[in-house]
Design a protein that fits this description.
Blueprint: H1 9-35, H2 38-58, H3 60-63, E1 66-67, E2 76-77, H4 84-100, H5 102-122
Helix pairs in contact: 1-2
């Protein structure tokens, strides 16, 4: 389990497309398998809220896009097939990031992390431990 994934644009794009496609495929296959059996229709009605929540969590249009790092400002990269809903949500995210100083928070946290690493390297090694 991770909270944040950091990578270059090419790898990020590949990972994002794979994960989006996988989530869509799993949902489509699961719905078909459940619909193919008589008792499946009843089961589907019971698990429909869970499927709906899963779909919402994995739907790119709910988030609008991902932040582009390394620029002096706020930029949200949206999917090439973004709907009006996705663009609206991307604008909401960009507005929130700008108001809350997202860029400055990232800089502060990366600096803190860098200093942590630096100080841990400067600590003398424990006797007998390499």
């Amino acid at each position: 389990s991770v909270d944040v994934v950091v990578c270059d644009g090419f790898i990020g794009n590949v990972a994002l497309k794979i994960s989006e496609g996988l989530a869509e495929t799993i949902l489509r296959m699961l719905k078909k398998e459940i619909a193919d059996i008589i008792t499946g229709r009843m089961a589907y009605m019971l698990i429909k809220p869970a499927i709906k929540n899963f779909k919402k969590k994995t739907d790119y249009s709910e988030y609008g896009g991902a932040p582009l790092m390394g620029i002096n400002g706020t930029c949200i990269i949206s999917h090439g097939r973004s709907t009006a809903k996705a663009i609206r949500n991307a604008l909401k995210v960009a507005n929130k990031f700008a108001k809350e100083g997202f860029k400055d928070i990232i800089i502060k946290e990366l600096t803190r992390y860098k200093n942590q690493i630096k100080s841990s390297r400067e600590e003398p090694a424990v006797q007998g431990v390499v």
